[in-house]
Amino acid sequence: MAESLTQKENLERSVLKWGGLAGILGGIVFLFVPIVQFGFVPPAPSDPSQVVARFPSIIAPLTIGNNINFVADILYLALLVALYRGLRGTSLAPALFGTAMSILGLAVLFTETETQVAFAPISDLYHQAGTTGTQQQTLGYIWQATQGMFFELDVAAGLLLSLGFVLLGIAMIKSPSFGRRTGALSAILAAVATVGIALIPVLGEGSLVAVLAVPVFIVLPILWGWKLYRTSKIT
Length: 235
Known about the structure:
By secondary structure, the protein is mainly α. It has one domain. It is built from eight helices and no strands.
């Protein structure tokens, strides 16, 4: 019986350990997304047709950035599963609902990480021999509409994640592995991120409020990952 309990404890520690490492690595990996996509992709022209026209020149950094984002999302998923395992014993309700809401947000992000797949056919038609100027202009508007859909998904996913993180922060307050300070700080940062993301449709993605989303994608995953990893060593 004692041997069986020890084996179960080791398995649970393994979940916390690998989930914690995934969170740390996920936050670090996500840092490279804006570095690649903003550092190697110049600002979009105001003319929709020109946005489509330049696509072949930016598809490489765009694809690389999207794939990095995809990897980061996978790592965040592992972190969330481990967080639920670590928090359900002391705060089941907020841990359960926060994890479910956060994973739903990740699911939305997963559907839009490979944006080049949606834009490449539009670009191909634009650059196809025989495409008229009027048709190219129309393709520019189609591109704008497609981009708008991704923008809407970005905001929805960000809100789901940040609200889920607020609940997870609340769940951490009663957890001895995280503590009141970490839980309160996490809930406050996630709440601030929620406000920032909610204002993006009004002020635009390029506004300073977009920076408020950083804790959700970088700071909190690294902090929570470190806490889980430490817990796996002392549990």
